[in-house]
Specification:
Helix 1 (about 15-25) runs antiparallel to helix 2 (about 30-40) and helix 2 (about 30-40) crosses helix 3 (about 55-70). This protein has one domain: Nuclear Transport Factor 2, Chain: A (Roll). About 30% of the residues lie in helices and about 40% in strands. The protein is an alpha+beta fold. The radius of gyration is 15 Å and the shape is globular. The chain contains three helices and six strands. The chain has a six-stranded mixed sheet with strand order 2-1-6-5-4-3.
Length: about 130
């Protein structure tokens, strides 16, 4: 027997959430980035991908800053369609210079808290360019 949960049928605004997330990753000014991370991530949020693991806004902010230093001059952009259901969103991204082929593509899956902030993000690398 199946039951219907009205909350389970509601949808999250995956496009808006993904756009705010990418904006935090691209913000170069440390103070503005910290503010964006606070807007986008819940206080006890977690982040996990094949190369990094962070817990809490401070660690997530520091990780984003380190990625920006490692990939100086590159920016994240949304790639493809963003979608979501219940309290989960999925979106793909690309990392590269504007107008050039991306050096990496990935897909992130995020759990959204009741207040609309990200409670947890799990990232996957779909492709990464081999060094020249």
């Amino acid at each position: 027997m199946s039951t219907t949960n009205p909350k389970a049928n509601s949808s999250v605004d995956a496009s808006r959430i993904a756009a705010r997330y990418i904006a935090a990753w691209n913000e170069q000014d440390a103070e503005r980035r910290r503010a964006l991370v606070s807007e986008v991530f819940a206080s006890e949020a977690t982040y996990l991908d094949p190369m990094a693991r962070s817990a809490g806004r401070d660690e997530i902010n520091a990780m984003i800053g380190a990625v920006q230093q490692q990939f100086a001059g590159l920016r994240f952009s949304l790639h493809g369609q963003q979608d979501g259901h219940n309290n989960v969103v999925r979106f793909s991204w690309a990392l590269g210079q504007e107008g050039a082929e991306p050096v990496a593509h990935g897909t992130d899956v995020a759990v959204v808290s009741e207040d609309g902030r990200l409670a947890g993000v799990t990232g996957f690398l779909d492709a990464i360019a081999a060094p020249a």
